[in-house]
From TrEMBL:
Keywords, in A-Z order: DNA-binding, Metal-binding, Nucleus, Repeat, Transcription, Transcription regulation, Zinc, Zinc-finger
Domain of life (superkingdom): Eukaryota
Cellular localization per UniProt: Nucleus
Organism for this UniProt entry: Trichonephila inaurata madagascariensis
Gene Ontology CC entries for this record: chromatin; PcG protein complex; transcription regulator complex
Family per record: Belongs to the krueppel C2H2-type zinc-finger protein family.
Entry protein name: Zinc finger protein 544
Amino acid sequence: MASTTNLNAPGSKPCNICEHCRKYYLGLKPHELYAQCVERPFLCTYCNRTFTRKDKLADHIKSHTGERPHVCTHCGKSFTRKDKLTVHIRIHTGERPYVCPQCGKGFARKEKLGAHMCIHTGQHPYHCPHCGKGFAWRDKLVNHIRIHTGERPFVCKHCGKGFAQNDKLTTHIRIHTGERPFVCKHCGKAFARNDKLTVHVRIHTGERPFVCKHCGKAFARKDKLTAHIRMHTGERPFVCNHCGKAFDLKGKLNAHMNIHTGKHPFVCNHCGIGFDHKEKLNSHLLLHLGSNPCDSLIVNPLMTKTLICKLTGPFYQKLGKIYSDNTRKIYAEQITIL
């Protein structure tokens, strides 16, 4: 039986309240509370699940029949219920009508705001039975438990890869379909994930919300800040299981592992020689330049990745080509610098 709390008790800050019995249940979602307090006379003939209202039963039956009458005009995704479509459209429009009164953060769904409020109240009503970790959201707990059980119930129909979360599967499937529903309003570039679009937009806005408390340097991405802070703390969490050498970035460990495995994944497309590090391949590719595409282009001896042009200044490498910091003009098209 779920524990309850008196709503009138001093200091009580409920997250889940049943609107029928007016009790706060610490460990159940609102729709589950509804089941304990109200008669449910409408029975699904497919799975025997019961409902309080006939329209709720009708919506549920669509999950069995496959009917999805409500279609998104932006990406074509369909839904069994109109309210689900309404919430989905906010992904495209960016609308977040439910705003936290304490910190101003906006949410597309009311229940997301309700769970967020538990962060401010300090409540974590959902606890992992394996490790005791607490969560403000029940679905977060469900996903977390799969770390312990190894369960991956969401399977890709294209390649068979399994996922612990349905949204991870949805994002993965876009690799196969090529769908990129999240489009930048500044340049039109499209992304498979909304968080990738959010980070990309900061290129245009210049926003760098993640600030280092040690030196004040700001970053557009949280993971970049996390990696940067290790320069100050000296933390090297990624350890080679062959020799014990530690690294501050997982990518550096992966590159280091090539020394032990003998792999040379970075191959020159001119002569076929392989290298264990991308930087070594980049240095090697300069030997194939032959007639320099820019007569004033020289290699900076202090930085393997950096090219310096006497006329236009430093160059940087991105998307397999050499760009000028000043003109953004592509100077080397006949050779790929990774």
